[in-house]
Write a structure and sequence with these properties.
Layout lengths: L4 E4 L4 E8 L4 E9 L1 E4 L17 E5 L5 E7 L3 E6 L4 E6 L4 E5 L5 E6 L5 E5 L4 E5 L5 E5 L1 E2 L2 E2 L6 E3 L5 E5 L15 E5 L5 E5 L5 E6 L5 E6 L4 E7 L5 E9 L13 E3 L5 E5 L2 E5 L5 E6 L4 E7 L5 E6 L3 E5 L10
Antiparallel strand pairs: 1-4, 2-3, 3-5, 5-30, 6-7, 7-8, 8-9, 10-11, 11-12, 12-13, 14-15, 16-17, 17-18, 18-19, 20-21, 21-22, 22-23, 24-25, 25-26, 26-27, 28-29, 29-30
């Protein structure tokens, strides 16, 4: 089938705002950018997801390398700047503030069923939880007595269990103790189970809306793997969901991963955010001017897609709501 590319022509508008936080000045450039989409003539098209008038907005920049966005129901976005060792807070009034510093070189973030922050920390090599009083506690930092590599991203199942990936992006080879890069399930009772150990470098992770499938980005191999979830929470039947490779595009690998309520899969990859149908067919791609790293659903209706890129934060309005963390 021939893929036709339709580009939404938008007026380029640049509004420069200067915002403050306790440690630095962050220049937030609210930029309306062109959104590029594909396959708009197919029955299940990206046009059902992104309106022709949708605008990609650049909200803030001048970060070192940002990751792990998560929308809090109290009305703000949290995201990590890994080398800066900071978790930032972005509020609806466009203010960027320091939420936590140091952050343990936090990477991925999500919320549990009680809206407590869960974080994958590179430097501390752990999965942590921020209690209601602000205290940060360790949930998992070892498997069978050996230190984890550098937990990267995580997702919460409706039963309260936490699934997370543990590649080696945050440690050197001589610091590794396990000898493999795993995908784990942390049960509500604290039991840690290794689910997968044969992916090259597992990264982004997400469930289908019915939680019958688990998607995991195998970044260096350039594809999304999908597993069937068994009643006991373990996974089986590993298979290829989709390859995210584009020889014409420089930079970007399958990294952050999210799913909407219709089961469409959104993954950062070469050129921006790839949108795939529940059966793995490419519906479209949101072009991002920097290498996109991760994404999260935001606002009260969960129809705003926030995108972290190398040094900047972006967002775009969509038509379908995303799956709520720890639903």
């Amino acid at each position: 089938m021939t893929i036709k590319i339709a580009t939404i022509s938008l007026l380029l508008i640049v509004l420069t705002l200067v915002v403050s936080n306790p440690s630095k000045k962050v220049r937030a450039n609210l930029t309306i950018l062109t959104a590029q989409t594909e396959n708009r003539e197919k029955k299940n098209t990206v046009q059902n997801i992104i309106d022709d008038s949708a605008k990609l907005e650049k909200l803030a920049g001048d970060f070192q390398f940002i990751e792990g966005p998560i929308w809090h129901p109290d009305g703000f976005l949290l995201f990590s700047d890994i080398p800066a060792n900071i978790i930032y807070k972005f509020a609806s009034n466009q203010q960027v503030e320091v939420f936590r510093s140091p952050s343990g070189k936090a990477n991925g973030n999500t919320l549990d069923k009680e809206n407590r922050l869960l974080t994958a920390e590179h430097e501390n090599r752990r999965v942590s939880r921020t209690e209601k009083d602000g205290k940060v506690i360790t949930l998992a930092d070892r498997y069978e007595g050996k230190r984890l590599n550098s937990p990267n991203d995580l997702v919460v199942k409706s039963d309260g269990s936490i699934y997370f990936t543990d590649p080696s992006y945050g440690v050197s080879k001589d610091q590794e103790e396990l000898g493999f890069y795993g995908v784990y399930r942390l049960a509500p009772d604290g039991k840690l189970t290794l689910l997968v150990k044969d992916l090259v470098l597992p990264n982004g992770i997400a469930f289908s809306p019915d939680e019958q499938k688990l998607y995991v980005n195998n970044s260096e191999a350039g594809y999304i793997a999908v597993f069937d979830v068994k009643p006991d929470g373990t996974v089986t039947n590993q298979r290829l969901f989709a390859e995210l490779k584009d020889a014409a595009t420089k930079g970007g690998v399958p990294d952050g991963l999210k799913v909407d309520l219709e089961g469409n899969v959104y993954s950062t990859g070469p050129g921006g955010v790839w949108i795939l149908s529940p059966d793995g067919k490419l519906l479209g791609r949101i072009s991002v001017p920097e290498t996109a790293t991760n994404l999260a659903w935001g606002e009260s209706d969960r129809k705003t897609l926030y995108i972290t890129a190398n040094t900047s934060l972006y967002r775009i309005r969509l038509k379908i709501a995303g799956v709520r963390p720890g639903k």
